[in-house]
Amino acid sequence: MPDIIHLLPDFLANQIAAGEVVQRPASVVKELLENAIDARATSVQLIVKEAGKQLLQVVDNGIGMSETDARMCFERHATSKISTTEDLFRIRTMGFRGEAMASIAAVAQVEMKTRPHHAEVGTRLLVEGSAIMQQEPAVVPAGTSICVKNLFYNVPARRNFLKTNAVEMRHILDEFQRVALAYPEIAFTLHHNELEVFNLPATKLSQRIVGLFGGNYKEQMAYCEEETTFLTVRGYIGKPEFARKTRGEQFFFVNNRYVKSGYLNHAVMKAFEGLLPKDSHPFYVLFIEIEPAKIDINVHPTKTEIKFEDEKTVYAIVHAAVKKALGTHNIAPSLDFEGDVNFAPLQPIRMQGGYNEFEQEQHTGGNSFPGFASAGTAPKRATSKGWEQLYEPLREQASQEERYTSASSGMGLLDDAFAAETAAASKKAIQIHQKYLLVQVKSGMMVIDQHAAQERILYEKYVGTGQKKAVTSQALLFPQTIDLSPADATLIKELTAEFQDMGFQFEDFGGNTIILNGIPADIHAANEKELLEELMEQYKNNSVTLKLDKRENLARAMAKRLASRLQPRMTDLEMNSLVDKLFACQVPNYTPGGQKTLVIMELSQLHELFQKG
Q: Are strands 231-238 and 284-290 parallel, antiparallel or unpaired?
């Protein structure tokens, strides 16, 4: 039997390795920027054309390379960062595997120009598909310039799977921002299609954050620092009042390397517990300095995952550091031990609808029905005045009930029993705590989460609007000029068609600025910039957790954000209209994210609560 195992040719092995290291243009940007950092550069330029598909160039003023080093850096597993096994446990450089340059050269046309500071003449090198095409002496500036052209030119399947320029540019911006944040003492510039996107001088961390994300971050930041013998935590956290509804700018750096860690994020969120509204996320940029021997960064090709030797201690220190920063800046609430401890007695609360004699619980864990005691607590005193009014909506007879005309359409996803109940629901709804609607149905009662119901209604409206191209906009009396971050500006240009389908009208004003001329007709004209930022944050959050097309993703973002902006107090007409619209939806009983919009309590269950046979 002939031998069948053989060594792969170098060019093929490099292409296979490139599949892990170089996934898109942003992967090349990450590797080249990190190499510039390791070369001790003080100034780094990133030049991009056509979102990196045509050109990616990084120019630095680092130490440069000799003629031999310039050629060797394109060999597999060739590196200046480590030489022994022990070096793996004291790594402080960004790169160390020696795979990046070989992988990039395997799937692109690369031109390198480099010169050490002490040399008078440098080297120019051309590499194409792992093959050195030309090497010659050249008069070039000190440092290194690497130009990557026609990425994936010899891997057409990979090139065809690249996203639009706007999407790929957004990924490039993400990588650029992470490196620029990690090294504020280094000057960075970014040009895309010959337009300057960023010009960041060497500065301190706080100014770098403002330079990347905008001047409004000046008021948001609180300094955070904690030094122990095990590790040091430093950086900035955002004040609770500036928290966003979706994950915004949240960055962890371990020994100046950007990492993703749900475990550390939980430590931060735990410190903010009780200070943030529900489903809100704070801004933070936190740096952890720890001995390299106590971590393992050789976990994933992108090096964004990390293993800690003692992760519980790291968690505790990060949590304590953030908690301390909140207290230091008078953000966390404190107890006044010198104040009067004799609390005033609770007064009866006047309820909407005239039930002014009932005591109502003030926390969400209390009973939703006024006048009823919570389980396990003493019953509250209440007079009989108002009871007739309280029960009036539930005393309507079946002969007076009206079926919803719209309930018969789109009920295919519900079972027959549920459809029968919703079709027989009473038109009259009662609002409870400005959060829930109580509606009588044939066999009991239905409780509707009004926020979740509004989200479902808006989602189906915007999905349908996109499909039918029925655009309804209202022009703003005074068009608004809105300055966006580079990442948000790139994203909104990518979604221009989808935003227009849903009623937004805007035009590009150049750079990262747009002019907003119109908004959807059913949105109140107020805080348009804030609304756009919320929509884009929600869109990005959906993109991380879900695989959706752009239109459905934006429809979900619109529904979630607009539902949260609606007023909780509703008139009788608004409540009944909400119930009508909910049962006209294709899937009325769940939000797009899977949360229940309503719960039905059978009459038999009510009997059991009062121990009635």
A: antiparallel
Establish if 395 belongs to a structural domain.
Answer: no
Q: Which two tokens stand for residue 418?
A: 């549920």
Rounded distance, CA 450 to CA 432, Å?
A: 10
Judgement on whether residues 18 and 130 belong to the same structural domain of the protein: yes
The string of DSSP letters for 13-26 reads: HHHHHHHHH-SSHH
Nearest CA to 265 out of 277, 254, 281, 278 is that of 281
Tokens of 485: 């971050």
The total number of structural domains in the chain stands at 3
Residues 6+ apart with CB under 8 A from 14: 76, 102, 103, 105, 106, 130
| pTM score of the predicted model | 0.67
Same domain, 215 and 162: no
Terminal Cα-to-Cα distance of the chain (whole angstroms): 84
For residues 17 and 100, give the distance between their C-alpha atoms in angstroms, rounded to a whole number.
Answer: 9
Q: Among 173, 202, 231, give the residue marking a domain's end.
A: 202
| Pair type for strands 109-115 and 143-149 | antiparallel
Q: What is the DSSP string of 168-232?
A: HHHHHHHHHHHHHHH-TTSEEEEEETTEEEEEE-S--HHHHHHHHH-GGGGTTEEEEEEE-SSEE
Q: Give a yes or no: residue 225 inside a domain.
A: yes
Indicate whether 229 and 184 sit together in one domain: no
Report the CATH number at residue 247. 3.30.230.10
- Exposure b/e, 342-370, CB count within 10 A at least 16 = b: eeeeeeeeebeeebebbbbbeeeeeeeeb
Rg of the chain (C-alpha set): 30
- What single letter denotes the amino acid at residue 361? E
Structural tokens at position 377: 């607590």
User: Domain boundary residue among 174, 202, 230?
Assistant: 202
CA distance 191 to 184: 18
Q: pLDDT averaged over consecutive 10-residue blocks of the chain (613 residues)?
A: 74 64 89 92 95 94 92 80 61 68 90 94 92 92 95 86 84 93 96 90 94 84 92 92 77 91 90 83 92 75 75 93 86 48 42 38 40 40 43 41 37 46 59 86 86 88 64 80 80 82 83 84 73 78 71 82 78 86 87 87 85 67
Instruction: Clarify whether residues 216 and 101 are in a common domain.
Output: no
Q: What is the CATH number of the domain that holds 120?
A: 3.30.565.10
Query: Is residue 247 situated within a structural domain?
Result: yes
**85 SS3 class:** helix
C-alpha 488/C-alpha 400 separation (Å) is 53
Size of the chain in residues: 613
Domain range for 306 is 207-328
